[in-house]
Specification:
The chain is 54% helix and 13% strand. The two termini are 22 Å apart. Keywords: DNA-binding, Transcription, Transcription regulation.
Length: 193
């Protein structure tokens, strides 16, 4: 799971009212007025909190005539709650994907032209990670980049900057929030170059 989604999940559940709503819905579907009555809050307040939970996919709704019932997506809740532990599991996988210096140099030599441009993005995961780690060296740790700046860093190496940018995020080299990008700590990377 991407880091920005994990952060968003925890932000949404970082509110006591939303946790109470999730707890109520764990026992079965309820409509907004019933939730408001059980929590002693106004329906408009419940509408606000339910919208946040719905936007994250933790709850969904179904209409029964004139009444909208809210349901908890327990599977999604469990997946999101375990996401941090899964990131730790990726660290274990990272150790299994270790690449020695000779292999790294061979991969770089095969996928980069003499002028430094990337010939193609490797399809094999191990090789792709080596290439991504090699390219990410251009990014300054601690600096926040706008999307346009990231594109400008990638463009001299490869024309498909959107794919490279997406791969950096999906493989936890970088974190994205509101079109701003920042390098993750190397401990989160799947491969350290």
């Amino acid at each position: 799971m991407q880091l920005d989604k994990v952060v968003q999940f925890h932000k949404v559940l970082g509110d006591p009212t939303r946790i109470k709503i999730v707890t109520l819905l764990k026992h079965g579907p309820l409509h907004g007025q019933a939730i408001a009555n059980k929590l002693g809050l106004r329906p408009s307040t419940i509408t606000h909190h339910v919208a946040k939970l719905r936007d994250t996919g933790l709850i969904f709704q179904r209409r029964d005539r004139n009444t909208i019932y809210f349901y908890l997506d327990e599977k999604k809740l469990e997946q999101n709650a375990k996401a941090i532990l899964a990131m730790g599991e990726e660290t274990r996988m990272k150790q299994e994907m270790q690449v020695n210096e000779k292999e790294k140099l061979s991969i770089i030599k095969n996928f980069f032209a003499k002028d430094g441009t990337l010939k193609q993005i490797p399809s094999q995961r191990k090789k792709k990670l080596v290439v991504l780690a090699y390219l990410i060296r251009q990014i300054e740790p601690g600096r926040i980049y706008e999307e346009k700046e990231i594109n400008e860093v990638i463009l001299p190496f490869h024309e498909d900057y959107a794919t490279i940018r997406r791969e950096w995020i999906m493989n936890h080299f970088m974190y994205r929030s509101n079109n701003q990008y920042e390098l993750n700590p190397k401990e989160m990377w799947p491969l350290i170059f």
